[in-house]
Amino acid sequence: MIAVIGDIHGCYLTLRKLIKEVRRQYFDIMMYATGDLVDRGNFPVEVFELLLDEGIQFTKGNHDLMFLYSYTRPLHPFVHSWGYNGNEKTISAYAKHPNYLSKHLDYIEIAPLFLHFDDCLITHAGIASIYAKEFRGYRPISDEFLQQFCPKHINETTGVVWNRNPLLNLGKLQIVGHTRHAKVTHNEISNAVYVDTSVYTGDRLSAVIIEEGEVVDIISVETELDDIA
Question: Average per-residue pLDDT in the chain?
Fold first, then answer.
């Protein structure tokens, strides 16, 4: 059994409240997150520190990569996109806390593009159905195949950090963020669960509890307004 938290976007106070609620109901459960830790919310520095303190691993999101590349690979195409994707609060936060910048960039650098379990696959934006041909002959999917596939398409709009197209049914549950929904949503055709419930717009932050490839519980908390004011 694991818990998977949707996109956090600098909403530290809300994240802290959600973690507390998950721990109250499932004390020793392992928790993971779908990425997009930064941008739009006020407290990205505190979000990173809380995840580190809690031992919560996350998959790289597009906002995490735009942040990383802006400091480490300034000519990368992602950098241009960061300027119109809500980077102001992230820049401001690290200007106030510069000692954390290198540490958190390193944390993103080593974060995986996917987390693969026997019964589910966690990525930021999901494996698009347009890649069906590449997956023929690779069922069940292996870590080795994913380690080749995910970086190969990372710069594409249909790759696992940017995709908004329909997802491929992999024969196991996909858990993704990136594409916002009013509530946690399960697409039965692709067997994919969308857990980004738009915390930074003042809605809620959600986590799904997964057991044997099924969503057995959903825990959501309303956005703390100080996170986004």
Answer: 96
List pLDDT tens digits, range 45-62: 999 999 999 999 999 999
pLDDT, position 137: 76
Residue 138 has pLDDT above 80, yes or no: no
CB 59 within 8 A of CB 6: no
Distances (CA, A) of 202 to 41, 161, 222: 10, 23, 7
Calculated CA dihedral for residues 159, 51, 90, 86, nearest 10 degrees: 40
What domains appear along the chain, each with residue ranges and CATH number?
Answer: 2-61+111-227 (3.60.21.10)
Pairing of strands 120-123, 114-116: antiparallel
Token look-up 């959903």 returns 218
Evaluate whether 89 touches 40 at the Cβ level (below 8 Å): yes
List, as one string, the DSSP characters of 30-88: EEEE-S--SSSSS-HHHHHHHHHHHT-EE---HHHHHHHHHHH-TTSHHHHHHTTTT-H
Q: How is residue 190 annotated by DSSP?
A: T
Cβ count near 33 (within 10 Å):
28
Per the CB < 8 A criterion, the answer to whether 19 and 31 are in contact is: yes
CA nearest neighbour of 71 among 33, 29, 47, 103:
103
Helices within the chain (DSSP H only): 12-25, 44-54, 62-72, 77-82, 88-96, 101-110, 132-135, 143-152
